[in-house]
Amino acid sequence: MPLELLSEHACFGGVQRFYRHDSREIGLPMRFGVYLPPAARSGPVPALIYLAGLTCSEETFAIKAGAQRHAAEHGLALVTPDTSPRGADLPGDAEHWDFGVGAGFYLDATESPWNRHYRMESYLLDELTALLAAELPIRADRLGLCGHSMGGHGALTLALRHPGRFRSLSALAPIAAASASPWGEKAFAGYLGADRAAWLAHDASALMAARAMPYPDGILIDQGLADGFLAAQLMPERFEAACATAGQPLTLRRHAGYDHGYYFVASFIGDHVAHHARVLLRD
Fold it and tell me: What are the residue numbers of the active site?
């Protein structure tokens, strides 16, 4: 079987599962989580793919965010991929928390030795989505994309780089202008090389400025104002300005007192699930 079931847990009338499989794009085993709501017992359901942030895994969101309750109510599946390849054992891949293991930045590396295994964009777009539809009761034609921090960067950039693949889009505290962020600069230099012009193809604000309203139903972003990474790393105002230039409807909500962690994510994830459900469940 392509999928190896690692664990299964009853949850809000549905089931939370974790799987492992051999990935052709990554060249290593990969893990992901899936929450199937009660509605999935009657047939395939739309799915929200959630991309996690730095240092996280396929388990982080499933354990910390409390999103299964909302997904069960709306009849959406939740899919949580891992954040990077694991087991590549490349020199330096586990020396930094913001580069290498747990920090794949949802792109295909072009620089050696990273280009052999760090192919998260191709893994997600060309492999995982097809595997979900083939092996699980998930509709490949009704997918939404959401993410937090590095995963918010991934959600925004992948959705903009592949128009039409995802029907709905949102993010929580995303790295919104990665080519100008210290996290992004470090990752892009390592994975993509020194040519900063090439980085713009993976910068959400630069991508949005070059497009005209790819998501007419709107993009939802939540940002905590007590987030210690807000000014130096995240820069949502740049994405906001790019959306205005492109004519893209954007709801950017700023919340006093909220930081960068999963207490913030858990506080607003229900609104994000509802945002995606409005689009994904519409006939």
Answer: 149, 227, 260
